[in-house]
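U., I forgot to send this yesterday:
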Amino acid sequence: MSRKHLLKDLTWVEFGERMKENPVILLPFGSQEEQGPQAPMGDYMLTDAIVARVAERADAIAAPIIPFGFADYFRPIPGGVQLSAETFRALFEDICANFLDHGLDHLVVMNGHSGNYPLIDQSIRKLKRERGVWIPCLNLWRLMTPAQWTELHGERGTTALGHGGDPLTSVYLHLFPDLMRMDLIELGERKSVLGLLPSGLNAVKFEGVDVNLAVDIDDICDTGIAGGDPTYSSAEIGEKIVESLVDFSARFVTYFKGVDATTS
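Result:
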């Protein structure tokens, strides 16, 4: 029998045996949100698939993914499910506590939705103070360098990145091609807010500098494509992105397995 790497596949007896190794537990978080008209809304599926590969390569154990995140700026689009900040933090801390209470102190957060991270940061700082443990977080879609994006997208480089563009469109084309509707792509004009162009999903540009503002996706565009250009995405690029993310994450998890995760 092959060694299991997904917590959902283990019996409690099997997991009890694995606990003796003090394994690294991967905690994946994602989001149920629009990703442009061409992609399914369950972008947590991408995180789930990548984390399963990381667990196998690094001989870690992946917990079941939490599919909902803090993504209030997507609330105007039907079909999304957004947790409040209070609910997300409580859920996150409860999940961590379940493992920490059993002496499993090597936890690594695998975050597939950038909007979750400010709340994750608050919680891992709280857990550091209260439980004396370091809990690192890998923000999956931020793990590649500008040089890597230039290698993948040529002169476009990091301008290919953005909500509704890459990396998620290419990764979807690689992992879930049958769910994609590239024929629905519409590249509309980006709207201005207060007469200024948006910068991401929480700011506008003023004299080249980001000014944070509570913009929602429908303040920015009518298509759900807030940045990048998904017409340049491809399954081939997605395959390279997945391999890069899995390789980097597995290297970190392997390293983390060998260090003391307690703060004392």
